[in-house]
Amino acid sequence: MWFSSTAWLLPLALAGSVQALPKGAKIGTTASHVRKGGVTYNVFEHAATGARLEYVNNSGICETTKGVNQYSGYLSVGENQNMFFCRNNPQQAPLSAWFNGGPGCSSMIGLFQEHGPCHFVNGEDTPSLNEHSWNNFANMLYIDQPIGVGFSYGDNPVNSTWTAAPYVWKFLQAFYEHFPHKSYGGHYGPGFASYILDQNNAIEAGSQKGEKVNLVALGINNGMFDSTLQEKAYITFAYNNTYRQLIDESLKDKLLEAYESECLPAVQKCQQTQTNEDCQNAGSVCGESVENPIMQAGGDFDVYDVREPSNDPNPPETYSKYIARPDIMKAIGARSDYQECADAPGQKFGATGDGQYLDIRFQLTDLT
Fold this sequence. Notes:
- This protein has helices at residues 108-115, 161-178, 190-205, 227-240, 249-273, 276-298, 318-323, 326-332, 343-351, 354-357, 361-367; strands at 3-5, 8-10, 29-36, 39-46, 52-57, 69-76, 81-89, 95-98, 118-119, 128-129, 139-143, 153-154.
- By secondary structure, it is of the alpha+beta class.
- Strands 3, 4, 5, 6, 7, 8, 11 and 12 form an eight-stranded mixed beta sheet that branches. Strands 1-2 form a two-stranded antiparallel ribbon. The protein has a two-stranded antiparallel ribbon with strand order 9-10.
- A hairpin with a 2-residue loop joins strand 1 (3-5) and strand 2 (8-10).
- The protein is globular.
- One of its GO terms (molecular function) is serine-type carboxypeptidase activity.
């Protein structure tokens, strides 16, 4: 798993299966150094979880502000499972974790194209400091997950939000133990936030060993909450969009009827049974009855900006070529080719119908 924050740039590797901490486990640390592929890594091993951090510091990549430390590396929490992370750290600021969506897309998109410490202006070959970076207000932690996304590599057993959450929690345990002086302001999905709060309760009750994570806030940017809402919104958005109407009234009425008679019942069954078979079927039914007809009728358009073609050249993909350079990879300690949006992790989520049965409205209510 890869993460980045205002003071640190770390590729992170997650290895092995995630298990609860044994009741008798003592939270301890060991620190050393190891050299791999011509790169010297600082090594930290977390006794309670068995997680291992390997990172380089002050690479000078992306964040060049004086007095800001930078770390990048891998977190291993099991065998052949390596997650990349990047973190930058201003003093006296909350820690905010950022996860891009997909599922299966790298958080380096957020770091280099959205709100990270640096960006590429007008397609330049090298980055410059971003004066509007979120790093001005928080220690941003960008994490590549699940494994196989971005610079993360290895075996990936994750196929849903719920199976991904323990890996993130285990990472935070090792992270807090090694860098204990930082607070946490959370930016992530309700599934992860709920898992973190559940583990906090277990730690307080004495049934789980570990550090309580002080989850202060949850921010969601352009998020999908519930398929029963999202699928219908595809139709109304496509018809009512004032920049570019994608479907006419006749098709709109036809799709709304298909939504009520085909898509909605399939999603409701999925959310009731929560089986992979029913949820995968719901995704297929809604795709055929609602989503595909809109894509076909709308012609060539970008789903994120209907004014642009599907192959929108903006923002330029300069950053992906930059971080794939051998000298840059060596500087930040990356050990795997960069995959901006990997197919395999997303396909695993699709096979379980994760996006269909995930109704997070109730979790959001619990979190507020």
